Amino acid sequence: MRWEIKKFSDLTITELYALLHLRSEVFVVEQNCPYLDMDFADQKALHLMGYDANNQLAAYTRLFDKGIKFAEASIGRVVTAPFARGKGAGRELMEESLRQLYQQFGEQPVRIGAQQYLEQFYGSLGFKTVSDTYMEDGIPHVEMLK
């Protein structure tokens, strides 16, 4: 996977369209969750994009320094394209997200709002559950901290 990280203002129109398309494809259509994905936090995030050998956007996250989404630094909108699943792309995405977050903002605690069914996956990356289950957009979530 080839990785690029950019501030919102440095994204090209094509990159922005691709990442919003991927987020909508998975979070809205696939998960049958009609919610407004564009929350005005994109402008405050660093955008990590992973491209496959065909230069297709295969994986994406947005990274935040502490004090923006949570008191701690955070990773959000974690998504892999359907064509990239089952090949380790999700793990590679999270490992690169943590590397980039530490490189950009310094090594520090990281909090995520994780879909509950992925709790074991995030646990394998060193995250610990620190909240009760809560509903977000009709999907059970937990907060996790690394």
Automatic annotation (TrEMBL):
| Residues spanning the membrane | none
Entry protein name: ElaA protein
Q: Which GO terms describe its molecular function?
A: acyltransferase activity, transferring groups other than amino-acyl groups
| Organism of derivation | Chitinophaga dinghuensis
Domain named N-acetyltransferase: residues: 6-146
- Supply the Pfam families for this chain: Acetyltransf_10
